Amino acid sequence: MGALERADFHQLLVCTSGTGVHHVDYEAIELSAGMLLRIHPGQVQRYVTDSDLDAAMVIWPRESHHADPEDGEWYPGSREASHWRPDDDVFTKILGWVDELYQEQQRFDSSKRKIELMKALLCSLLLRIAAERPESTPNTSRLPAAYVDFRGIVEERLYHRPGIADLAHDLGYSSRTLDRACQQVSGQTAKQVLDERLALEIRRLLTHSSLPIGRIAASFGFSDQSNFSKFVKRHLGQLPGVIRDPDQQRQPARRSDSPSTDVGTS
Fold first, then answer.
1. pLDDT tens, 35-50?
2. What whole-number distance in Å separates Cα of residue 97 and Cα of residue 103?
3. Cα–Cα distance between 131 and 145 in angstroms, integer?
4. Cα-to-chain-centroid distance, residue 262
5. Cα(first)–Cα(last) distance of the chain, in Å?
6. Contact call for residues 39 and 87 (beta carbons, < 8 A)
7. pLDDT of 265
8. Cα 74 to Cα 204: distance, rounded to the nearest angstrom
9. Would you state the pLDDT for residue 249?
10. Could you give the C-alpha distances from 252 to 104, 105, 260, in angstroms and in order?
11. Which of 63, 85, 137, 182 has the fewest CB neighbours in a 10 Å radius?
């Protein structure tokens, strides 16, 4: 299995043959020929290197992204499908659009005209795929406004570990309205949605970054590392040190009569 990666650009995998598993934000996604997979900037991913899956990959920077005008910004919890299998005829068309983009890339000469052409072809590809996406595929245009607004401000203030009452006040909603909207979409309270998003970001940093655990705790406003450890244990099921280094969990327990200088696991 490959190393964890966290790219700062958009990715689209168009699976052309074989089968394989791709891990995105700790979810194992089974892929096979005829499927599409979207990976967004900031998501943690891991390739399974021993599979026979072949795929065409389209990558593009944040600044070149053309959002679907009928949908909002993607964020964890947006309910937008990350992978799906279009009809065979649609998939054949998608392969053609991707090949058109590839052929123009082969002729790319850095001229202003070619730059604009590549941008136009990318925009066309993304809008065409969005238009072909099944109606049953969830996206933010079908979600309650209060939920969408709440998820947006959570992304903006994630590292401030905001309180629900403060977020509700700044959005112009009551806390009860946010709870109702979150319950409608996810079956969770607003606090549970916020904590789940915080836990995901903490897990990303623990598994992908080399930041000291204490610094990660402080970056989310935890002044006491023991409180941070309790939060992580409650929401991710393990202590921060074990999430960072799973081998810790497999080490044999110390005998109770052995001398120890260990003062913590995180």
1. 999 999 999 999 877 7
2. 10
3. 22
4. 35
5. 26
6. no
7. 35
8. 17
9. 56
10. 57, 54, 14
11. 63
Q: What is the pLDDT of residue 137?
A: 54
Task: Report pLDDT digits (tens) over 124-136.
Answer: 999 999 888 876 5
**Cα distance between residue 200 and residue 207, in whole Å:** 11
Pairing of strands 9-17, 36-39: antiparallel
Cα 201 from Cα 44, distance rounded (Å): 10
Domains of the chain: 4-140 (2.60.120.280), 145-249 (1.10.10.60)
Q: What are phi and psi of 226, to 5 degrees?
A: -65, -35
Sequence-distant (6+) residues with CB within 8 A of 214 are: 225
Token pair of 227, please?
């409180």
Q: For the chain, give me the number of helices (H) and strands (E)?
A: 10, 8
Q: The tokens of 156 are what?
A: 């903006």
Q: Which regions of the chain are under pLDDT 50? A: 251, 253-266
- Written as one letter, the residue type at 235 is H
